[in-house]
Amino acid sequence: MSRETKYDIQRVPRNYDPDLHPFEVPREYTRAMNATKLERVLAKPFLASLDGHRDAVNCMAKHATSLSTLLSGACDGEVKVWNLTKRECVRTIQAHEGFVRGMVVRFCGTSFFSTVFTGLDHHQKDGTFATCGQHVDIWDEQRSTPIRSFSWGVESFSSVRFNPIETELLASCASDRSIVLYDMRESTPLKKVIMTMRSNTILYTYDMRFLEKPVTVHMDHVSAVLDVDYAPTGREFVSASFDKSIRIFPKDTRHSRSEVYHTKRMQHVVCVKWSADNKYVMSGSDEMNIRLWKANAAEKLGVLSHRERLAANYNQKLKEKFEHHPKVKRIARHRHLPKQIYMEAKEHSVMREARRRKERNVRKHSKPGSVPVVSEREKHVVAVETRWGPRVKPTQEEEEEEEEEEQQMGTRRRNLIPMGSRRGETDTMPSLQRSDIYLRRSAEPSEPLPSSPL
User: Fold this and answer.
1) Neighbours of 322 (CB within 10 A)
2) φ, ψ for residue 92 (rounded to 5)?
């Protein structure tokens, strides 16, 4: 700070509190940089590989009551029970002659189910389970025939899952690029969402109350997603892809974590599971291996002392405080990807930019308002159907007409006086309220109402 003359006295702010250091922020920034660098040095997510299958691993199931037990099914019909603590196979069962396409453990942990159908899932509380193939069938454990069957004019279904919270609801993915929602208490399906691309497994994050567009579209994989499993906290999920990689997504963000799990020998990842203690991720792939990963790549395993736990928490808070600084952000996001994934991601980025540029040019050279701007979330849904027929959303002109009619009705009602009341009394007419339910409008003209004989 310069002065023009020696008599120019300028106030210098000082903090005389001995507990506060004058260079506290620079020191914290340096510590955040060191913590970020150490995290990248210690990030080694791969733990173990479980060998033993003689064919590709097609499905896996977590034990309901034991953290160290894992079940896997292969394409040769073989089912294996693994002990993850000892990292060895405990039991081998020749369950089927063909592919084991689905496997689930009962909620009490006393038994498990495997199937050659395309999908299988068990109820969270009752002795019922669901399978999918040409139909979605609900079975009782004590009966040999399904107690209920659902279908919606499609050839086959590829996956079915129960809702872990609303246990009577379940969803399935169909071969016509649709997702169908069911309620076991009803005799027919509830809703159907037709998408622009095929849904191998439910990956888009939807709100069941509003299925016109997904809440979040997760877009980081460069090839088809084959399996998804949520963390027990419900805040993240792990995805297995045909591009030979595993990614972890926060549920409300579009992009995955910076970590991309891959190895040189790992082929197409077919199935993936997140452990019930939120610490590990298990994956099964085409080269007959089951791999065990850390959910947090830089987390230290084992028992931590009190000082280690405090230091880890302090470093985590420092990284969160300075995560948007350029140098810290660059170090935290830097990853070495396989060449194939890197080149395909670059090609997809060029293709997306070309589509955006084409849309901008078409909109620029068209009549204003004729080419609307469609958000990324709305592009992926073609239509939403209910059991009463397709749900038609009103256009902007129809909404304006409805609002004008409501305003006219309001002015008419304000000029009316209820019968049996006099001017000055407090009797009022009940107010009309607009319904929150869309009215289904048919494309065909409606039939005239029958005339009254009176």
Assistant:
1) 21
2) -125, 130
